[in-house]
Amino acid sequence: MRDTSDPTSAIVSGTGTHDGLPELGDPASVHLIVGASRARIVLSGEIDADIGAELGEATAEAEATGLPVEIDAHHITFMDSSGVAFLARLASRMPHRVRILRAPPTVKFLLEVTRIGELLEIVDEDEGVD
Predict the structure, then answer these.
(1) Cα separation of 80 and 5, whole Å?
(2) DSSP alpha helices (H): ranges in 6-125?
(3) How far apart are CA 3 and CA 33, in angstroms?
(4) How far apart are CA 86 and CA 49, in angstroms?
(5) Residues of the chain with pLDDT under 50
(6) 33 CB contacts (<8 Å, ≥6 apart)?
(7) Three-state secondary-structure class, residue 96
(8) Are the CB atoms for 9 and 1 separated by under 8 Å?
(9) Are 10 and 40 in contact (CB under 8 A)?
(10) pTM for the complete prediction?
(11) Which terminus has fewer CB within 10 Å in the chain: N or C?
């Protein structure tokens, strides 16, 4: 879903608190923020098969921008093979190398074990969205 009143921002799906942090019992959220020079997908909560449709929609929206894509993974509390498959699909479809920002240790472990991390640029710091 794109917010047509603001061409620089789109929210694909959203749950959670107003500050973007996951709450107890908040299974997941997927947000797409489109800046001037890149698109950012912000993931939080449990990234699993239950949000497959939202991940697919975020991928399509991000791809449609034609901008480099980054994933803010800072607030992911759990990720299964659905999340890993999402990252692999995204990396294979984007013309630019996808950046993973502030990945928690569990996500870094999954990216290393599956070797999907080799397809991505993993960055520990966040420069912010322009």
Answers:
(1) 35
(2) 52-65, 81-93, 105-114
(3) 10
(4) 10
(5) 1-18, 22
(6) 9, 10, 39, 40, 42, 129
(7) coil
(8) no
(9) no
(10) 0.77
(11) C
